[in-house]
Amino acid sequence: MTSNELFNKLLEEPVLIEKYGLKEKHLKKITLTTKGDLQIIEALKLIIQGVEYANPNVSIYKQIKTQFNLK
Amino acid sequence: MASIINSISFNNFFNFYGDYNQNMYEFNSGLNVIVADNMSGKTKIFSAFSWILNDEVIDSDKEINQIVKVENFMVQMISDKAKSETSLDDDVKCGVLLKFSDENFEYEIEKSITATKINDGSATDLQNWECIPNEVNVSKKDLSRFDFIPIYDQDEKLEIIDKVIRREFRQYSLLRGEAVDRILDFSNKNSLKAAIDTLANISKVDTLIKLTEYLVNRADKDLTNERKRHIGDKEKFEQKVKERDEFRKRLTSQEKNLKTEQQQLIKAKAERDELLNLVSTAQEREKIRSQRSLVENEIEEKDLQHSELLNTIQDHFFDPQSAWLLYKTGHYEGNFNKLRDTYIEDQKEKRIINEVRSGDHSFLTKLPEGSPDSFSLRKMLKEEKCFVCGRSADEHSEPWNHIQSVLNAHTKPNKLHKSKHSFNALLDALMRSSSALSIQIDKIESEVSETRKNDVKYRQEKKKLRSRYDDYRNDLLGLGEVDGHKDTSTINQFGGAERRVERHEASIKEIENKIHDLKAELKDKNNEIKRLSYQDLNIVFEEQLSILTDIDKMANRTRIRLMDEIIEKLEQKSNEYYKLLTESSSADGGIIRIKRQADEIFSVELEDKDGNKQYGLSEGFQRMKKLAVIMGIIASKEDGRLGYPLIADAPLSTFGKGLIEGFFQQVPQVFHQSIIMVKDLFDGTSDDNLNDIGKEVLQEIKASSGSMHLNLIDKGQSQIERETSIKRY
């Protein structure tokens, strides 16, 4: 299973529409490489790329914190 | 890229005596069948593949075939005949040579050992040999060239061996009899999960889940620290955090317990369901045995009663109180009386004659013919009248006195005759003693008749009981008679499994309630902590935790969805193969259903078209079910066909004819090459040693591709002289 396949599978989760207000049309346009502004999607991208490149968990968390502007 | 095994050959390997050229099987793509009777080398061929691929062989001398490492079994692997021909200090080589090819290259892999005889004595004695494994020889040849190039790099050698059958597929490609059952032990959580991992590389999702769990924990810790920084009453805050962490720990522990219990429940259910197929027959057999035992007791009792009756008959004959010895002798009594009277009369006559001779003539005054008897004479005297002439005879008159003298002469002889040999006393005694028995003689007939009736009754009852006993015995044979203890054990095991199912179900309910309560308490604790620390809190920490928690949930749910999709596809593929594999069988094998029982636990069941679970299907169907799932796994992964050969030893031992036919028709659809060692096509009485199905399979092979070989062994030879010869059809 490729990272893109996994990412697309995750985007099928209804919570994104129900809780985060994303539209299906919008979801279809999202890819791993395109930059967006929704926190959950950006965090998801970081996580999947971290898995793909086998990055250490600690550094993935640091990247996420940076994304949330947390020190 | 598909690989094809071109040949496998043996050098003094088990019963394959001689060099590689003498012991070679050549294969093609498609179906390759090696037909062999029992003990004719099927498992040895399988061992040869297993040696090349896994450095293991099968020790088939054990009651249950065991997989053993080659390094621990070297002496036994060498042909006994070759060993017996080896002199002291001489060497003997044993090896397997496998040739295979892919689209670009042809490869040779040789694994061998050299054994040196170090002691005189028995060739089969392990102590007399020293064995060394030889370097594995691997070489390859470009298909466009002539020469093989030896490979020296160990990694490359392993890569080439992996090309025969890739490691992760070996468990599905190297099948050995009952091993099919073990490959997919559906009660084992890891069994189907491993298959699904093979299919979907779902392990990437597992990594994702582990990562998101870590991220949630880290975000939670950071949030807690952030709250701590903004709290006034730090002591109280820390206490609440401690309490919350304690609840979390307990929740994690209970969730772990729940998984364990769910797994145990599946296992117990699988065991119960498996036993359910056997237990109804076992219970039926036990019922019949119990009824048969009652009949046995009844027969014993009747036998006793009957022999008592027969003994009574004997007693009747020899008991002095019984008259049975006189049975049918009633007429002798009359004869006896007549003879006795005659005897008395004769005696009387003799006495008179003797008296006359001695001058006493009183008895000569004979009454004329038709004279009255003594009774009439007495009556005449009493009535003073002669009944003969009708005249009166007054008392003491001359006529009266005459009548008196006639009576006297008749009844009171003057002298008693005494005979030296008189039997009167004996006859009187006989008459007296027999008179008691003679009364019984008349009853004997009815007594004998009654006894005979009882005898017939006992015989008929015993006959009926024996017939019932035979019926029970036949019923037992019909149900496949097995040792009674085995049935008792099956019934007990089933009872045990049922109790375990109940126990685990109760535990699961209890744990679920605990988890529910713990979650509620955890929520309360989190709210308490939140209330304590809400002033000036950087809410981004909360946002971060919330988003990461959602991602964690998404990852877990995605995993479930992925597995469900794979399971659905697998179920569909498995059913396609199951239908094809079982279509030649007359019985309805049902539909395969792969069901999620718990988080990661699946069960594979057979259901009818209405969704009812099917029990009581033969072992052949159960094995076909698993084989169909294996085919489904391969087909789901490899676009319908596996690029590696199927090598199977006796996979059909419990199959019926229909299933065997289905197997040979369908295997080539899934495996581009299959090498099957079977006994089920062998018929030693046929000219070509093939039974009807064997002949059909041979025709199929001749019409397409593949090969068929026959193993022959002279079972009359001693083990040490025994060798397997190979015939190609």
Summarize the structure.
The complex is a heterodimer of chains A (71) and B (729). Chain A has 71 residues and is mostly helical.
Give the arrangement of secondary structure elements:
The complex is a heterodimer of chains A (71) and B (729).
Chain A: H1 3-11, H2 15-18, H3 24-29, H4 39-52, H5 57-67
Chain B: E1 4-11, E2 24-26, E3 30-36, H1 42-54, E4 56-59, E5 66-69, H2 74-77, H3 80-84, E6 91-101, E7 105-117, E8 129-133, E9 137-142, E10 149-151, H4 154-164, H5 170-173, E11 174-176, H6 179-183, H7 189-200, H8 203-229, H9 234-318, H10 330-357, H11 374-383, H12 398-411, H13 424-478, H14 484-532, H15 539-582, E12 591-598, E13 601-607, H16 619-637, E14 646-649, H17 657-670, E15 673-678, H18 692-703, E16 707-713, E17 724-728
Helix pairs in contact in B: 7-16, 8-15, 9-13, 9-14, 10-13, 11-12, 15-16, 15-17
Largest sheet of chain B: 7 strands, antiparallel
Number of domains of chain A: 1
Mean pLDDT of chain A: 91
| Gyration radius over CA of chain B | 52 Å
The structural class of chain A is: mainly alpha
* Shape by Cα distribution of chain A: globular
> Can you count the helices of chain A?
5
Largest interface: A-B, 25 and 30 residues
Distance between the termini of chain A: 34 Å
Order of helices and strands of chain A: HHHHH
Number of strands of chain A: 0
Radius of gyration from the alpha-carbon trace of chain A, in angstroms: 12 Å
- Helix percentage range of chain A: 55-70%
Q: How is the main sheet of chain A built?
A: none
Task: Detail the poorly predicted runs of chain A.
Answer: none
